[in-house]
Amino acid sequence: DQKIVCRYHLKIAAFSAETRLKPFFRRNMRQFYWSKREAMLTDEQIKRADEWIEEHFLFLEHPKERPTVSWIVNTAEVAVQRHGCRAILLDPWNKLRLDYDPRDTTEARYIGDALDLFIDMSRGLNVHTQIIAHPSKPDWQVRKHAPDLYSVSGSALWNDRVDAGYCMFRPEIVKDGER
To answer: Minimal CA–CA distance to 16: which of 104, 92, 83, 85?
Structure first.
């Protein structure tokens, strides 16, 4: 959130394998920075917002956009130590390449080990780590209730192991043709 970044002078390292993060993020942050749509911004406002973004955000990019957990941990450590990042954003979990052999362990055990690794990394580096994990089960359509952390594919550990977990739910993004 822009207000938290400003208030505490944070630098955030962000990774996304779903979209080209920098242009997508930049467009949204310009709008948040000025509290108006990007199309309404002057060239000077865009320039000032972009300078602010460059000062407070580091965009992590994997060459193949399918990193492993260890790549994220190693890259996050560099972001913290070299660039002074205080928060790590990983979006989304399901785009990570799961580097385990299903003959040796279960998906739930792998997720637990990965979450433990992120928890240890966060505590060791004194950073906030935010992992976006999309729910997999169609709770809204089938069960008629909003998804929760137990709805994330692979493991109940998304609910049981994390320090803080939140679910966002938007039952109707578009209604009668209006967003």
So the answer is: 92
Q: Alpha-carbon distance 135 to 153, whole Å?
A: 6
Q: Is the pLDDT of residue 33 over 80?
A: yes
What span, in angstroms and rounded, lies between the C-alpha atoms of 71 and 95?
13
Is the confidence at residue 2, as pLDDT, over 80?
A: no
Inter-CA distances, 28 with 66, 71, 166, 177, Å: 24, 27, 21, 23
135 SS3 class:
strand
3 state DSSP class of 106: coil
Q: 10 Å Cβ neighbour count for 63?
A: 6
SS3 10: coil
**What integer is the mean pLDDT of 56-82?**
90
Closest residue by Cα to residue 93 from 171, 173, 22, 162: 162
Q: Are 129 and 88 in contact (CB under 8 A)?
A: yes
pLDDT in tens, 84-121: 999 999 988 888 887 888 889 888 888 889 999 999 99
